[in-house]
Design brief:
With about 325 residues, the chain is of the alpha/beta class. Helix content is about 40%, strand content about 15%. Helix 4 crosses helix 7. The chain is globular. It starts with a helix and ends in a 10-residue tail after the last helix. About 45% of the residues are buried.
Length: about 325
Amino acid sequence: MAELRFRGRWRRARETRGVRHWFRALLAVLITAAVVVPLAAAARPRIPAPDPAALAPPTAATLEGAYAANRANATLASGMAADHGDRHRAAAERELAAPSRNLLSFDGRGAGRAVEVFGDLAHADRVAVLVPGSDTSLDTFGRFRAGAAALHHRLTGQTGAGPRTAVVAWLGYTTPGTVSATVITPDRAEEAAPDLREFLRELRSVTAPGARFTLLCHSYGTVVCGRAAPHLDVTDLVLLGSPGTGAASAADLRTRARIWAARGADDWVADVPHVSADLFGTTVGFGTDPLSPSFGARVFAAGSGGHSDYFRPGSPSLANIARIVLGETSEVTGA
C-alpha cells in the first residue's frame, strides 16, 4: 500500500513538472514572438495592392463573372507587387490570375486572402471546404491549393455516375505564424469564425438545393472551425492534425454535424500539450485532444504521414476524407 501511495505521488509530481516545463516553454515562445515578429514585419515593408473587386454576393448566374473579376484583380495586384520589387508575391499572384483559376474572392492586401473553387460549384451535390492552418498566405497559397486539387482529383475519380462534387480552398482569414504568440491563442480564430459562417451562408446561394457540405479543418484551422461550429450548416466537420478546438468534447461544439478527427503517425502536433489556461489576460492552449475517447469524435486512419500530408495522393487520410465528403461513411477506416 505504501508503495502504491509513493507511486501515485511520484506520478503526480512528474505530471506537475511536465506542466511546469510546458508553461516555461510557452513563456519563452511568447517572449521570443514579442521580439521576433515585429522585427520580421519591419524587415518586409507592406506590399501595395488594389482594393478587392467590388462584387455582390455570388449566385450561380454570376459565378463566372466573379471568377473573371477576381482574376483581373489578382493581375493588377501582381503588377503592383512587381513594381514594388517583391518578385515572390508577384509570381504567386500571377499564378492566381491564370485563366484556368476560379477565384471566388481575392484580396492582395497584407498577407492576402483568396478563395479558389475546383469543380462545378453551381451544380455540385457534395461540397468540401478546406480551412487552412498557420503560415498560409498568398505567398504560400500554392501549397494550400495543392491539397484541395488532390482531393478534387480523388473525388472526380471515385464518383463516376454518383454525386457531383466541388472543392473550395478558403483562405478567408489572416492565419497566425507558426512561430508567434498568436498561434497558441484563439484570437485569430475568434476573428475568423464570423467570416467563415458568412461565407458558408453565401455559398448556399450558389450551390444546388440540398447540397451537402463537409468542412475540412487543418491544424489552427480546427480552432477556427471550433469557434464557428455552433452556427454552421454542414453535414460533416473534419479535424485534421488538430492542437485542440477549445472545446472539451464534440458535444461542446454544439453542432448537428458529425465530428471526425485524424492525426498522422508522424504529425508533430501529437507532442503539443492539450491543455488550456488563462495567461496574461488571454486563453493559451486549446484543451482536449480531439482524438481522445473523452472528446467523442469519430477517429479515422490517417496513415504514417506528417502534419502537411493529410491530402497527399495515395494516402489513407485522403482516401478517408474523400469517403466522408461523398457520404460513404461506412467505408471509412478506423485508426
